[in-house]
C-alpha cells in the first residue's frame, strides 16, 4: 500500500511540474499565439521605426526605394510585421539584416527570404545551419557590409564576440542611430550564449567599440530606445558583475551558490533569467581569470 501511494504521489508531482513548465513556456511565448498582444510601431527618427513586442526589437528604415529591416522576430510575427510596415510606408521590404542567430530575431527569415535579401555575419549562418534553423542568411560578411538603398546607408558591423560570436550592430550614419541587437538590453541582465560562441570578457571590449560609434541613439535588442550614455552604464554594470563574480569565486563560491554569493541588486540585475541560463559557462569563464 505504501509503495502504491508513493507511486501516485510521484506521478502527481511530475504532472504538476509538467504543467508548471508548460505554463512558463506559454508565458515566454507571449501567452500563446492567439493571445499575444499586438506589435507596436514607434518612430525613432525621420524614416526609422522600431517594432516592439513578441521577441527582439525590429528596426524598419524606410527609403525611397524600399525598406531595410533589422531582425524579424518569430516566424509567426511575419504577417503582423508586414502590416506594421504598411502602416508607415507603401515601400516593400528589400533587405533584412540579422544581428545574431536567436529565433526571436531570425524566425521570420524563411518567409522574408522570399521577398528580400537576408544578410548577416558569417557566424550567424554557421550557427543557424548547425542548429538546423530555417532561413539562414544568403549573404554573409566577416567584418562589415553596407546597404545603399535610395539615399540611405545602413552599415552592418561586427565588432567582436559578446552575446554570441556573430553579433552585429547596424548603424544609420545620417540619423546617428545604431541598432545594437542583444549586445545591449535594458529589460534585464545579459545572456552569454556560450553554445554559440558568446564571451562575457570580450563583450566588454565589444561594448567599448559600440560606444565609439558616432551615434546619439541606441535601439536595444530588448527594451527601450536610449542614448549612448545608457549603453555605457550597461557596460559598467556588466564589468561590475564580472568583477564581483571573480571575487566570489576566489573566496570559495561554487556554481551551486554563486547566485547567493554575488550581490547584483544595486545594479538592478539578478542571476534569475538570462544570467541564470548562462551561469555554468559564466562561472567557468570567470574562474579562469
Quick summary:
With 289 residues, the chain is of the alpha/beta class. Helices cover 36% and strands 24% of the residues.
How does this structure look, described?
The chain has 10 helices and 13 strands. It is 36% helix and 24% strand. The longest helix is centred in the N-terminal third of the chain and has 27 residues, at 2-28. The termini are far apart. Helix 6 packs antiparallel against helix 7. The model is unreliable at 1-33 (pLDDT under 50). The strands form 2 sheets. Strands 1-2-3-4-5-6-7 form a 7-stranded mixed sheet.
Distance linking N and C termini:
56 Å
**Looking at the structure, what is the overall shape?**
globular
Strand order of the largest sheet: 1-2-3-4-5-6-7
Structural class: alpha/beta
Characterize the main sheet. Answer: 7 strands, mixed
Mean pLDDT comes to 90
Percent of residues in helices comes to 25-40%
Oligomer: single chain
The total strand number stands at 13
> What is the number of helices?
10
In what range is the share of β-strand residues? 15-25%
Stretches with pLDDT under 50, minimum 5 residues: 1-33
SSE run? HEEEEHEHHEHEEEEEHEEHHHH
Rounded radius of gyration (Å):
21 Å
Question: Topology of this structure?
Answer:
Elements: H1 2-28, E1 40-45, E2 48-52, E3 58-63, E4 66-70, H2 78-86, E5 93-97, H3 103-106, H4 109-112, E6 117-121, H5 122-130, E7 139-141, E8 144-149, E9 152-157, E10 169-172, E11 177-185, H6 200-211, E12 217-222, E13 225-227, H7 228-250, H8 258-261, H9 274-277, H10 279-287
Parallel strand pairs: 4-5, 5-6, 6-7, 11-12
Antiparallel strand pairs: 1-2, 2-3, 3-4, 8-9, 9-10, 10-11, 12-13
Helix pairs in contact: 6-7
Amino acid at each position: 500500500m505504501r509503495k502504491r501511494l508513493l507511486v501516485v504521489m510521484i506521478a502527481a508531482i511530475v504532472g504538476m511540474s509538467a504543467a508548471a513548465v508548460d505554463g512558463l513556456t506559454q508565458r515566454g511565448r507571449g501567452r500563446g499565439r492567439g493571445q499575444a498582444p499586438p506589435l507596436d510601431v514607434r518612430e525613432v527618427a525621420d524614416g526609422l521605426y522600431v517594432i516592439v513586442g513578441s521577441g527582439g526589437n525590429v528596426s524598419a528604415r524606410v527609403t525611397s526605394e524600399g525598406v531595410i529591416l533589422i531582425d524579424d522576430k518569430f516566424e509567426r510575427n511575419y504577417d503582423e510585421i508586414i502590416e506594421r510596415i504598411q502602416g508607415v510606408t507603401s515601400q516593400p521590404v528589400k533587405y533584412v539584416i540579422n544581428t545574431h542567430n536567436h529565433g526571436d530575431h531570425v524566425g521570420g527569415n524563411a518567409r522574408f527570404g522570399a521577398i528580400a535579401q537576408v544578410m548577416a555575419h558569417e557566424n550567424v549562418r554557421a550557427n543557424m545551419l548547425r542548429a538546423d534553423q530555417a532561413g539562414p542568411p544568403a549573404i554573409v560578411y566577416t567584418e562589415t557590409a553596407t546597404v545603399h538603398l535610395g539615399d540611405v546607408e545602413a552599415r552592418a558591423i561586427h565588432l567582436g564576440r559578446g552575446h554570441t560570436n556573430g553579433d552585429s550592430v547596424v548603424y544609420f550614419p545620417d540619423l546617428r542611430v545604431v541598432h545594437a541587437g542583444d549586445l545591449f538590453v535594458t529589460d534585464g541582465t545579459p545572456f552569454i550564449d556560450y553554445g554559440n560562441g558568446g564571451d562575457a570578457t570580450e563583450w566588454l571590449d565589444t561594448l567599448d567599440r559600440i560606444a565609439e560609434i558616432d551615434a546619439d541613439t541606441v535601439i536595444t535588442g530588448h527594451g527601450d530606445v536610449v542614448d549612448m550614455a545608457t549603453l555605457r552604464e550597461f557596460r559598467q554594470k556588466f564589468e561590475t558583475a564580472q568583477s564581483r563574480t571573480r571575487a566570489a569565486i576566489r573566496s570559495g563560491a561554487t556554481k551551486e551558490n554563486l547566485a547567493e554569493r554575488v550581490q547584483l541588486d544595486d545594479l538592478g540585475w539578478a542571476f534569475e533569467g538570462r544570467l541564470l541560463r548562462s551561469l555554468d559557462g559564466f562561472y567557468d569563464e570567470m574562474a579562469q581569470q
